[in-house]
Structures are given as structure tokens and as C-alpha cells.
Design goal:
- The chain has a domain of about 70 residues: Cystine-knot cytokines (Cystine Knot Cytokines, subunit B, Ribbon).
- It contains five helices and six strands, in the order ααααββαββββ.
- The strands form three sheets. Strands 1-2 form a two-stranded antiparallel sheet.
- A hairpin with a 5-residue loop joins strand 4 and strand 5.
- The radius of gyration is 36 Å and the shape is elongated.
- It is found in: Secreted.
- This is Neurturin.
């Protein structure tokens, strides 16, 4: 067993003393050589990161570095225009994948069971109806019209008009009319309330 408070003296520099120390070390098996000093881990990691980034930048051409800087500046301006206060460069990969999956769900028909009062049409009734709606993205349905419209908006050729530069998931057909009694026993019929078929328009 070694004593934890034991200190090792530095090795002597003279040859005779080194020979003596080597002979004494061979005779006693309990002595250990002094451990080399290690630099702090944080500094080593920092320097290794700097080395990685510098070697990475050296592999790029001047044109590629300019494109990278312009892309970063564009992302920063987009973040500031949308109300952000920091550059969203390195998001969490897990949440980013979840958002990507949520964004790219195809356009499909969904349904909810709601009360007539929840429809927001001004009727007071506790009767429930099946409300079908369209939900999802239309990335696969982007046409040349959408790409050109997006380009015209980015070039500010179209400024004031309210246009949508991508297809939207909307009803292509509606379900049958819905009839119900309100809270005062009055009979109403509402048409084109629930979607029957969805598509990208």
C-alpha cells in the first residue's frame, strides 16, 4: 500500500546519480517514476477544436468561404426579422428531426368531434357534429408557378399583393349538409361545413 501523501523528488541530472538511482530502482520494486504533467482538459479540447476548424477552413476555396459567410448573414437577418435575438446555428438535432417530420406530413383528411357552439358560426347548441378538416404540407406538389412566384417576391418585384408562393392543403370537396337544433329549439342547416376530400391547391 502506498501512502497518499508521499512526494517524489525530481530525478538527478548527473550520470553517477542517475546510475545510482537506476540501481536503487531495480533493487526496490515499490518506487514509481514521476507522472508527467498534463495540461488542463478544457485547454486541450479548446485547442483541438481550433485545429479542427482551421483545417476545415483551409479545405474550402475562397468562393466557398464567401458563400458560407453570406449564408450565415442571411440566416442571421432572417432570425432578427422574425423576432429572434440570437443566431440559430446549432439547434438540437433531435428536435430538428421532429420538426422536419412534423413539417413534411402529407396533406390528409382528419376529423374532430366538436359541439356546434365551438364551430364559431354564431349558433348556441350543445349538439355535437363530426368536423372533418384538411391538414398537412404540400411540398411534393410545388409547381413552376410556385417557384417563380417565390422568386418574384424575393426580388421584390411583387411587393404589396397578398400572394402565397406555395400550394396549400385545402378541401377539394365538402361533406353533406349538417342539421341541428340550437339551444332555443330552432332548426338550422349548414352547408360546406366539413371536408370530404383534401388536396394541394
Amino acid at each position: 500500500m502506498f501512502n497518499g501523501s508521499r512526494k517524489y523528488s525530481p530525478l538527478p541530472s548527473s550520470p553517477s546519480s542517475s546510475r545510482a538511482s537506476s540501481s536503487s530502482s531495480s533493487s526496490s520494486s515499490s518506487s514509481l517514476p514521476a507522472a508527467p504533467r498534463r495540461s488542463p482538459r478544457a485547454l486541450k479540447r479548446h485547442s483541438s477544436l481550433l485545429a479542427q476548424y482551421s483545417s476545415l477552413l483551409e479545405s474550402y476555396t475562397e468562393g466557398e468561404i464567401r458563400q458560407l459567410i453570406s449564408a450565415l448573414v442571411e440566416r442571421y437577418s432572417q432570425a432578427m426579422n422574425s423576432g429572434g435575438h440570437e443566431l440559430p446555428l446549432f439547434g438540437r438535432s433531435g428536435s430538428r428531426r421532429k420538426r422536419a417530420r412534423a413539417r413534411h406530413k402529407p396533406c390528409a383528411l382528419k376529423e374532430l368531434e366538436v359541439s356546434v357552439s365551438e364551430l364559431g358560426l354564431g349558433y348556441e347548441s350543445d349538439e355535437t357534429v363530426l368536423f372533418r378538416y384538411c391538414s398537412g404540407t404540400c411540398e411534393a406538389a410545388v409547381r413552376s408557378y410556385d417557384l417563380s412566384l417565390k422568386s418574384m417576391r424575393s426580388r421584390r418585384r411583387i411587393k404589396k399583393e397578398k400572394v402565397r408562393a406555395r400550394p396549400c392543403c385545402r378541401p377539394l370537396a365538402y361533406d353533406d349538409d349538417v342539421s341541428f337544433l340550437d339551444a332555443y329549439n330552432r332548426y338550422y342547416t349548414v352547408n360546406e361545413l366539413s371536408a370530404k376530400e383534401c388536396g394541394c391547391v
